[in-house]
Amino acid sequence: MAAATTSVDAPFEQAREQYAEWGVDVDAALHRLSTIAISLHCWQGDDVVGFEGTGQAIGGGLAVTGNYPGRARNADELRADLDRVFSLLPGRHRLNLHASYGEFPAGHPVDRDAIEPEYFRGWMDWARSRRIGIDFNPTYFAHPLAADGYTLAHPDPGIRRFWIDHGIACRRIAAAIGTAIGSPSINNIWIPDGSKEPPVDRKGPRARLAESLDAVFAEPIDPMAARDAVEGKLFGIGSESYVVGSHEFYYGYALTRKKILCLDAGHYHPTEVVSDKLSAVLTHLDEVLLHVSRGVRWDSDHVVILSDELLAIAQEIVRGDYLERVHIGLDFFDATINRVAAWVIGTRAMLKALLIALLEPTESLRRLEAEGDLTSRLALLEEIKALPFGTVWDHHCRTHGVPPGRDWLAEVKEYERTVLAQR
Ligand code: RNT
Ligand code: ZN
């Protein structure tokens, strides 16, 4: 046994040495990484269907492609899948729950404006027993009253009221969850409102949205129980020409109302990047929520991978010392591959990106930049790409009791054989 341990640790000791030569403290980086909680989105497990049982199309301009077998059909299956996912991730993470994932009494549908914390008891108990926090989202799509593409900005005051009440109900649920678990729940509002063709009135819906949001947020809330976030977007399917809750709209809203701004990596022009926005908006805002996603040509919500932009996001968070001010959530959904694997791939990619960023000799690079030695800055940024972060990652996985490298895949395949394929 001792021999095995030695041979396992030797490459790590070597890697640690190598980083030390660059002035990087590997142990400190790993310690920091262990404290970061990623909020895993529940909707990757069932193609954003939820448990209301109404059979409503997803709508809202969202689209999931693929029909890989094994979709979670109820809360117990989704929790079992999440347990499997969490067992393959180093560290303690969070769950990001949508309102449509409540456990509603069979045969007694509860409409969105009347949902209550009790329908989320199962989730709270599950999360408490695993000591994980839960974030929350009202569901402003897949509903007859959202069918024409408008919710909080709807011209009809009755429909607007329905969605305001949904927002209020969700905020109370988030607060109940945060209180029960002892960790504040971030309640993030995203709405689909917009139009396919250029509207004549761009101003009216935005005025109505601001008013509706103010009504949703009117009740004071204990920040130790729940926090409010708002998420903008550039366009969706069916809202190509106009989105009421655009980036400018919500940035202004978050600034004036002191809310958390949610930046989704798929919600901007294709050459615009969230990594560049972090330091810009955090100059003025206290906190940001990230929906880490991967848009391919459009807001396609591809599984997150270790891309240049993912690394840039992690670098900005670490270099800017924003780890306490940026809440990292994921937002993607792919039904063409094993859904449990999709979660694991995306979350491990996020953690690896953070590890690479934490292993960067940032201070020396910053010094070179300040001295104007841009030659050395570029040369060293390229050289550090070849440092053995993978060895450090594997060590991190082992010390957290989760499979290193590709070993997690065999466990997911086994789970597919024994559980997912039986559904
Ligand atoms: C939609 C937003 C939103 C959703 C989830 C399901 O474009 O990104 O965050 O993905 O609410
Ligand atoms: Zn999102």
Number of strands: 12
| Unreliable runs | 1-6
Helix content: 40-55%
Label the structural class.
alpha/beta
Q: What ligands are attached or bound here?
A: L-rhamnitol, zinc ion
Range of strand content: 5-15%
CATH third-level topology: TIM Barrel
Secondary-structure element pattern, one letter each: HHEHEHEHEEHEEHEHEEEHEHHHHH
User: What is the class in the CATH system?
Assistant: Alpha Beta
Query: Main beta sheet, described?
Result: 8 strands, parallel
Number of helices: 14
Mean pLDDT across all amino acids: 96
The outline comes out as: globular
Tell me about this structure.
The structure is a single chain. The chain has 423 residues and is an alpha/beta fold. The chain has one domain (23-362): TIM Barrel. 43% of the residues lie in helices and 12% in strands. Mean pLDDT is 96; it is low at 1-6. The structure holds L-rhamnitol and zinc ion (ZN).
